[in-house]
Amino acid sequence: ERQLVESGGGLVQPGGSLRLSCAASGFTFSTYAMSWVRQAPGKGLEWVSSITTHGGLISYADSVKGRFTISRDNAKNTLYLQMNSLKPDDTAVYFCARGWEVRDRGPWWGQGTQVTVSS
Fold first, then answer.
1. I need a labelling partner for 64 at 20 to 30 A (CA). Which of 34, 74, 91, 93 fits?
2. Which residues pair with 24 in a beta bridge?
3. Local structure of residue 32 (DSSP, 8 states)
């Protein structure tokens, strides 16, 4: 079955950290670039970060640069997003998606995990 399953979201105080995971199945994970995309309440999709097949090239949105770190473990078919120094503006549903700098919904998206940053 083809799927991407995110986990690791939750409620965190401003300045805190979370680590999101995305388990991939149904395709050869190691041969695709992967992305994280988020959608804040009442707003459109915002691309967050992307990583190439073996991590040789990584890209971040300016809004998260220096605070978030994307990584992947091809042996485990898993994509990660380490989020530090979280801000209330980071509150959103976070999705993983297959592809480089994904900005639109497509067939290879997860169901999302909610991240809420609030005191």
1. 74
2. 4
3. S
Tokens of 16: 């805190």
Strand order in the sheet with 18-25: 3-7, 18-25, 78-83, 68-73
Q: How confident is the model at residue 107 (pLDDT cuts 50, 70, 90)?
A: confident
- The model's pLDDT over 5-44, given as tens digits with 9 standing for 90+, comes to 999 999 999 999 999 999 999 999 999 999 999 999 999 9
Burial of 66 (0-12, 13-18, 19+ CB in 10 A): exposed
What are the residues whose beta carbons fall under 8 Å from the beta carbon of 11, sequence distance 6 or more? 116, 118
In sequence order, what are the residues at sequence separation of 6 or more whose Cβ sits closer than 8 angstroms to the Cβ of residue 65?
none
Residues 6+ apart with CB under 8 A from 95: 6, 36, 37, 38, 39, 109, 110, 111, 112
Question: How confident is residue 106, by pLDDT bands cut at 50, 70 and 90?
Answer: confident
pLDDT of amino acid 7 = 97
Question: Are 100 and 33 contacting, i.e. CB atoms less than 8 angstroms apart?
Answer: yes
**Integer Cα distance of 90 and 56 in angstroms:** 26
